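User: I'll paste a sequence; please echo it back and then give the predicted structure.

Assistant: Echoing your sequence first, then the prediction.
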Amino acid sequence: MKRIIITLIAAMPMAAFAGTESSDTTFVLGNKQIIVSDSAGKTKVRINTCNGEKLTRTYETEYIDNQEVKRIYVTSPFFPESFIKKKRNPRTYTHYPTLLFGTNMLGGNIMSPGGSTAMHSRDSKSWEWALTVAQMAFNTGSNTSVNLSMNIGQVHNHFQGNYVLATEDGKTFMREIEDGEVKKSYISYTTIRVPIIFEWQRYRLFAGIGASLEYRTNDYARYFIGKKKYTSSRDINIAPLGINMEAYIGVGAFVIYGRAGITPLLKKSNAPECYTFATGIGFTI
């Protein structure tokens, strides 16, 4: 392809000398339309592909001061234009996971990987998932960028034994059920998270570190005795806004991530103090 383009550029003066008044010179090769233009020291070559009556641009390159600037156009009926443009410059592509799944543990202190005695947390059964619905990236160097994303997810934190989370008179506390064996006890809430990440990438390897703002809603506490379900609280005094530290590392489309809450999950004035700590895997699409 490059040899053909160079040949066409060399042929431009002859085409112009032959009496072409237009600033563009057009060649047709099979179903390819090749347009060569030369203006103010800049030579541009565009290639359009003809599919029936539809003409689609598939390649564009410019020669400025003997340097080539090349663009490749990717078209697909499954992706909007904003996603197609992102593919043109791989340096602006964020590797924050599109889909992530992992454990979400409760610790008694900041950066504590679970094991909160005040919450009687059962971290091995606690989990989270999230789906990234929007993202963008800003170049800060040849291998670095600042990425902004937004994801929506769900968190389930489970408790040990017969302990359930309850709220009475505005106060949230752990209560042990005495009349019956609790099969499962947990709290659940929905998250909307906005991470801001500084990312380094080279070839297929990448790593990122940053912070995220987290909005929490739709919270409740629930437990089961046998097959019967009980809702012990529809207001667990959750802190509606939280701040996390985040980091991830990966290769290709595979990501390993970690996140630590630096603000409490629940309102300390009305509930036990606890902090989230999450690890898991994700995939970029």
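The longest strand covers residues 182-202. Residues 2-22, 72-90 have pLDDT under 50 and may be disordered.
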